[in-house]
Amino acid sequence: MLNIGLLLLIAPCLLLMGGYMYEQSLVSDCLDLGGSFNYELLACDQHNNHPFMPYMARHPLFVNGGMLLSVIGLFFCIIGLYKGR
Predict the structure, then answer these.
(1) Range of the domain at 39
(2) Membrane-spanning regions, if any (predicted)?
(3) Cα–Cα–Cα angle for 60, 7, 2, nearest 5°?
(4) Which string of DSSP letters, residue by residue, matches the chain?
(5) Structurally, how many domains does the chain consist of?
(6) Could you read off the pLDDT of 28-57 as tens digits, one per residue?
(7) Contact yes or no for 80/1 (Cβ under 8 A)
(8) Rounded distance, CA 76 to CA 1, Å?
(9) CA distances from 40 to 9, 48, 54, 80 (A)
């Protein structure tokens, strides 16, 4: 139970950070080129000024689901440590 809990606790956090950092690198590259990043299409545009949309607003199921899995993993870890072997 402890192994499953650790996996559920750590893996969603790493996936969320990886997805966010990948998207942030796209935004950074676009801004370095002097463009404006369209968060809805995940595309760089040279002519329009697009408003910022938070990652949570664009991927609510991914973020909420990942956090829910992490909390479940935390409870599995607590139960696994409490019961022992």
Answers:
(1) 2-83
(2) 61-82
(3) 130
(4) -HHHHHHHHHHHHHHHHHHHHHHHHHHHHHHHTT-EEETTTTEEESS--PPP--HHHH-HHHHHHHHHHHHHHHHHHHHHHHH--
(5) 1
(6) 999 999 899 999 888 998 877 888 899 999
(7) yes
(8) 6
(9) 29, 13, 11, 42
